[in-house]
Design brief:
The chain is of the alpha+beta class and 82 residues long. The chain contains 4 helices and 3 strands; from the N terminus they run αββααβα. The radius of gyration is 12 Å and the shape is globular.
Length: 82
């Protein structure tokens, strides 16, 4: 599902890290033909949210690129929402 969502935006998944203690998934995407944009990260993030019920599955998710960390991506998304 991650790979399909990334491919829609012309990206590929390069890493998925899981912290079992906190149920946190960190997904890293990259794009061969240009820079990964915030919209790419957001698209993949929303695809996961649509596929799984966070209240049932009890997980946290960050999607970032090789250029920015997941934490930086989260801060950018928070800024956009505000």
């Amino acid at each position: 599902m991650l790979e399909q969502a990334a491919a829609v935006r012309g990206c590929k998944v390069v890493a998925v890290d899981f912290n079992d203690d906190d149920n946190v998934f960190d997904v890293t995407i990259d794009k061969e033909d240009g820079d990964v944009e915030l919209g790419d990260c957001e698209f993949v993030h929303r695809a996961v949210l649509d596929a799984f019920d966070r209240n049932v599955e009890d997980y946290a998710l960050t999607v970032g690129s090789l250029g920015i960390s997941p934490e930086e991506a989260d801060e950018m998304l928070k800024t956009i929402k505000d």
